[in-house]
């Protein structure tokens, strides 16, 4: 198989999966087209390709805009291939593929595809933060908890616990109004309850939107009302809050990327102050809005570099697989493309459409190795002698672990 053939295959799967998730009509036709692609490419028969497809499901589910019936559609795809998943991967391997998405993990448990057992619990405590899965998975984790932990987390279990965790959204009443863009009910609700337009939502244990959950740290509270409206593309409520002159920070632009509502995005784009960030020096360049360090290895290699709000918006658009927004941002906001950044985040997000587009970047091979694209990395090495940037070769350990001297000798440093 050639590199281009592999990229075309994975790009077709990406587009097929996204088409099914985002279609509002012909759902059955789009579903059958995706299943046919899996059969035509024999994805389930190749462990590496199969794992890559399951990782793609997770990446998209974590970052894409969640439209109505979004997870019902994901469940239907997983249900179609659940036997092959169980036959191909171990309980722990399946968990690790999907671990970042609690709603998918919940479905896998309900479908008897995975289960929390002693081995997985040990792995969870050793490698991951066990507390991150509590109290959302309290019923399943209860047998492995101490009496003190059971007493603590059982307080979160209400009569509607099961219903709410299947919804997987913030269960505060006002958040539901925002998600459904019910402007009249929203205005009536905040007036009745004397809620300020600049208020924040309550933190919810049922929130499974990764972006929202990351931003909702205990000491900062949850997202603001306008941020939440931008995230869900709720344009009516967003415009109302915008008219109330609430304080807006540059990060609001990244929320709007997820909502994929261009009216909201363009309204924010006109506010030039959101795009003008003060420059930070030293280690402060790597701090987020909460004062916590937030960086990748690439940031440390290029210590003087800084993630501007333009960079962050570009990264979020890549992560969300909103590639039309990616191209718009690149055209309108960047005089020069940072191809290393684009290929880095495209590979990290399994955005094969952009990987194909920027594949000739000199840092591509490095990022393929870093993010476990073994098949594609080997195909690339077998085709011809390739050039690798000094930045990539500086991380030579990654290369020597993955490939033998024969492959290393085919690399020339530029």
What do these coordinates show?
- By secondary structure, the chain is mainly alpha-helical.
- 59% of the residues lie in helices and 1% in strands.
- It contains 27 helices and two strands.
- Strands 1-2 form a two-stranded parallel ribbon.
- Helix 14 runs antiparallel to helix 15.
- The chain is globular, with a radius of gyration of 22 Å.
- It starts with a helix and ends with a strand.
- The model is unreliable at 288-305 and 404-414 (pLDDT under 50).
Outline of this structure?
The chain has 414 residues and is an all-alpha fold. It is 59% helix and 1% strand.
Query: From N to C, what is the helix and strand string?
Result: HHHHHHHHHHHHHHHHHHHHHHHHEHHHE
**Helix content class:** 55-70%
How many strands appear in the DSSP assignment? 2
How much beta, percentage-wise?
under 5%
Alpha carbon gyration radius: 22 Å
| Distance separating the two termini | 27 Å
Averaged pLDDT: 85
Which parts are unreliable, with pLDDT below 50 for 5 consecutive residues or more?
288-305, 404-414
Inertia-based shape: globular
Walk across the major sheet and give the strand order.
Answer: 1-2
| Biggest sheet statistics | 2 strands, parallel
Total helix count?
27
Structural class: mainly alpha
Topology:
Layout: H1 3-22, H2 27-40, H3 47-63, H4 70-88, H5 91-98, H6 102-110, H7 118-127, H8 138-141, H9 147-153, H10 161-167, H11 173-179, H12 183-192, H13 210-215, H14 225-231, H15 235-243, H16 252-259, H17 262-269, H18 297-301, H19 309-319, H20 323-333, H21 339-348, H22 352-357, H23 364-370, H24 374-383, E1 386-388, H25 390-393, H26 396-402, H27 405-408, E2 411-413
Parallel strand pairs: 1-2
Helix pairs in contact: 1-2, 1-3, 3-4, 14-15, 14-16, 16-17, 16-19, 19-20, 19-21
């Amino acid at each position: 198989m050639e590199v281009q053939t592999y990229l075309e295959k994975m790009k077709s799967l990406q587009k097929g999966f996204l088409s099914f998730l985002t279609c509002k009509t012909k759902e059955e036709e789009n579903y059958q087209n995706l299943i046919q692609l899996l059969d035509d490419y024999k994805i389930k028969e190749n462990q590496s390709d199969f794992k890559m497809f399951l990782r793609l499901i997770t990446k998209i589910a974590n970052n894409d805009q969640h439209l109505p019936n979004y997870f019902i559609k994901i469940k239907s795809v997983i249900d179609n291939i659940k036997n092959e998943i169980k036959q191909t991967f171990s309980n722990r391997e399946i968990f690790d593929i999907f671990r970042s998405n609690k709603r998918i993990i919940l479905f896998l448990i309900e479908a008897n595809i995975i289960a929390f057992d002693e081995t997985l619990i040990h792995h969870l405590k050793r490698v991951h933060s066990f507390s991150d899965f509590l109290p959302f998975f309290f019923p399943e984790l209860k047998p492995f908890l101490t009496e003190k932990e059971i007493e603590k987390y059982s307080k979160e279990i209400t009569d509607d616990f099961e219903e709410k965790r299947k919804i997987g959204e913030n269960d505060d009443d006002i958040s539901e109004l925002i998600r459904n863009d019910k402007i009249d009910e929203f205005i009536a609700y905040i007036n009745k309850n004397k809620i300020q337009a600049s208020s924040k939502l309550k933190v919810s244990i049922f929130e499974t939107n990764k972006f929202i959950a990351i931003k909702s740290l205990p000491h900062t509270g949850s997202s603001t009302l306008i941020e939440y409206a931008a995230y869900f593309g709720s344009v009516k409520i967003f415009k109302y809050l915008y008219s109330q002159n609430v304080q807006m920070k540059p990060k609001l632009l990244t929320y709007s990327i997820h909502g994929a509502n261009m009216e909201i995005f363009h309204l924010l784009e006109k506010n030039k102050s959101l795009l003008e960030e003060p420059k930070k020096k030293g280690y402060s360049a790597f701090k987020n809005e909460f004062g916590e360090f937030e960086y990748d290895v690439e940031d440390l290699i290029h210590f003087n570099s800084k993630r501007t709000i333009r960079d962050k918006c570009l990264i979020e658009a890549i992560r969300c697989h909103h590639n039309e927004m990616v191209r718009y941002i690149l055209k309108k906001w960047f005089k020069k493309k940072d191809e290393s950044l684009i290929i880095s985040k495209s590979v990290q997000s399994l955005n094969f459409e952009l990987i194909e587009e920027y594949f000739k970047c000199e840092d591509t091979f490095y990022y393929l190795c870093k993010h476990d694209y073994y098949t594609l990395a080997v195909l690339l090495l077998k085709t011809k002698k390739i050039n690798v940037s000094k930045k990539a070769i500086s991380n030579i350990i990654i290369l020597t672990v993955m490939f033998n001297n024969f492959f290393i000798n085919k690399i020339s440093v530029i």
